[in-house]
Structure formats: C-alpha cells, structure tokens
Amino acid sequence: MAPNDSAESNGEATGTVVGRRKKARYIVPLAVAGVAAATIGLVPALADSGDPELPDITAQKLIEKIAASDEEQLSGTVKISTDLGIPSLGGLAGSFAPDAGGGDASAAPESRLMELASGTHTLRVAADGPDKQRLSILGEGSEYSLVHNGDDVWGYDSESNEVYHAESDGTERQGGKHKAPKGVPATPKALAEEALDAAGDTTSVTVDGTAQVAGRDAYQLLIKPKQSGSTIGSIRVAVDSATGVPLKFTLSPSAGGKAAVDAGFTKVDFEKPAASSFSFTPPKGAKVTEAEDLKDTAGKDGVAGKAPEDLGALEDFKGLNVIGEGWNAVAEIEVPGGSGLPAEGSGDMPAQAQQFLDALGDKVTGDFGSGTVFKTRLVNALMTEDGKVYVGAVTKDALVKAADTAK
After folding, report:
1. Domain range 308-406, CATH architecture
2. Which of 21, 47, 186, 203 has the fewest CB atoms within 10 Å, i.e. the most exposed one?
3. Inter-axis angle of helices 59-68 and 188-197, nearest 10
4. CA contacts within 13 A on the Cβ side of 206
C-alpha cells in the first residue's frame, strides 16, 4: 500500500508538469468538464477487489510517470457511469444533430457523444498513436462507432444505417503527425495531463493508496480543491503502475453521494491493435452525410431548422469574463439583447410558466439584484433579471458572491 505522500500543487512538488501553464488555473472547472466529457472516449470502469502491494511512490513521481508514459497503443472495453443530475439525453440526442438537407445527421458525433452525459454505457476503444482511434458505443442490438484514421473521420449508426464523414485538410500537425480531429477522443494520458496542468496553488495532489483496475495494479492519485465553495469534492485517477497510463477516472461531488463521473477500463490490452480496427467502408445502402454538406446547409438554411436571422443575436455575445480562480472560477456571460428572466410579479411571464421556472431553480438576491439559480450536481448557473448569466462548478452561495463581486 502506497503511503499518503502529498504533492500539493504549490510549485514545490508538482514542478513543471502541473504548474507550467498559469492561465490554466482559471479553467479548472472547464478542464474537469473537458476530462469528464472526453474521458468518455478512452478512460472508464470497475475496479477489481483487493488492493495490491506496490513500492512507495510520491505524488510528484507519479505525475512524472504519467507525463513520461509513451503508451499510445491500446484496446479494451470501457464502462462509464455519469450522474450530473440532468435528465437522460439518450432520446434527445438526435434533436441536436444538424439538418442535412431533409434528414437529421444521426451519425454525427456531436449528437451521439452527448448520450454519454447521462446514464451508464459500455464502450469498446482502440488507439494506435495520434492518427488512429476508434470508439464504439454499444447499445441493445445496435452500435455507434466513431473512427479516426489519418485525415478521415467516420461516424456510423447501425440502427439508422447512416454514415457521417469528415476530412482534415492536413494542415494541423503535432510533432510531425496529424492531430486527431475535434470530437475524436484523445488518449487517457493526455486527459490526465490536462487536469494536472489546470491545477494551481488552489489544489492538493496526493497518492491515496492502490487499486486493481482491469486486472492491472495501479496507484491512486487524488486531486482535491483546497478552496471551499466548489461542487467538486475530488478527482481520483487510477494510474497503471507499469506503464503510467490512467486506467480509471472518478469525479465525486462535494455534496456527497455517488460519483458524478465514474469511468474506467474493464479490460485493457497494450498491444498494437489490428489495422482493421481503424478501417471503415460505408455499408451498402447506407446514407452518407459529408461534414461539408452540413456546413453548407447551415449557411443556407440555419442550424437544426433555424433560419439565419434567428441566430443573429449570437453575435451580440461579448465573450467571457472569468471571476475568481482555480476551482471557484465563475464565467460571467451577457445574454444577447441584455434581457434576463422577467422579475416575479412583473406580468411579463404567464403564471404557469413562472411556477415551472420556480420549480426548476432557486430564487436568490444580492448586491447584483435578483435572479434564479439552476442546479446540477456539478455545474450551476445563475441567471439574473438584468440579463447576465454566471456559470461555474461552484455552489449557489459562491455564484451569488461572484455576481456581487462583478457588480
């Protein structure tokens, strides 16, 4: 059992691996959200029983082990359970797909990956360096696969027999190799490094024992906020003792209860996957939608059935103002047009609609004025009556404090 060796990220122990990007300290909640979403791709599962005996290691050395890991070839089965306190998106995912000239693009990754934001899912994953990845979401009698091979990205929905295809222009390169196109999951190593890079002096990083994941011995890296007010209680990453590859990712809310995101391998193999894992040919009779066609449709007819003039107000967004830092960072957004929720009793909203909103959120007041806080288990948002929105992985009280500070 490894000891509770601490490596609080104040620059003494975590060194350049954790603290090398100062700006990242302001986006811990965003990085966590990114890990929670992208970890979907290649990190999930159930730990085996029994804690292995491993040589002692400090948090600093374990972080360095993650950074030094060069395992970019793997395959396996993954399980992810997500409970953010929002309704299941499984039945709604198709409604978010862009319209492609008379039919929804059900194979587009933007819509299908949203399903992983709630519920429990089983995936098959494979990776062979930065140019080749495959992710398959297994359903009841159906499967959705996302395949990246060089300059091509394919999405295939076996239930609808629809195919999505996108091409890279080949201009974006990293270390002489193509970057994985947006929407294709990165490696577990990259995801763990992103979370660690975002940790600043508001974060404590320690080694908290050992575990066995997918039959492999692992150290447990525990990342916790030093600040109060965050909805994130801790992030636990099980790191393979032999390779340094993150095998499991667990994000627990500060309010307690089951994990908001629990993702880990149930089976993993670090041998080179077969080349056939990354080849794809559209099945006979499948409807193929090109990404460029979706862009053309959006330009002519709007997005998802909306006319361009309906989206013009989006240009009025003035960007993000970040209040606070680290785990308590809150983004301030101005609503287009400057209008927020109607004040209670103003008569601007039907009584039934007002009651519905009141049931969804909590009314709050402060120096900023008044507004409503809409909550999930992880991310909360305060919408004020003067047209501003404050969003962060923070508690209701922290949101009100941030709004008062901005005012």
Report:
1. 2-Layer Sandwich (3.30)
2. 21
3. 130
4. 12
Residue 290, C-beta contacts closer than 8 angstroms, at least 6 positions apart:
165, 166
State the CATH architecture for 15-287.
Answer: Clam (2.50)
pTM of this prediction exceeds 0.85: no
**Which CA distances in Å does 143 have to 109, 124, 135, 155, 391?**
13, 10, 10, 11, 34
Identify the CA nearest to 343 among candidates 320, 363, 368: 363
Q: Domain boundaries in the chain?
A: 15-287, 308-406
pLDDT tens digit at each of 407 positions of the chain: 444 455 544 444 444 444 443 333 333 343 444 444 443 333 333 334 468 999 999 998 998 898 888 888 999 999 999 898 875 545 444 444 444 333 456 678 877 777 888 889 999 999 998 889 999 999 888 899 999 999 999 999 999 999 999 986 544 434 333 344 444 333 455 556 666 766 678 889 999 999 999 999 999 999 999 989 999 999 999 999 999 999 998 989 999 999 998 989 999 999 999 999 999 999 999 999 988 776 655 444 443 333 333 333 334 434 578 898 888 899 998 876 555 555 555 555 555 555 555 566 788 999 999 999 998 898 999 999 888 899 999 999 999 999 999 86
Q: How would you label 245-265 residue by residue, b for 16+ Cβ within 10 Å and e otherwise?
A: bbbbbbbbbbeeeebbbbbbb
Closest CA to 14 of 190, 239, 203: 203
Q: Which amino acid is at 187?
A: T
Q: Which helix (H) or strand (E) holds 310?
A: helix 308-311
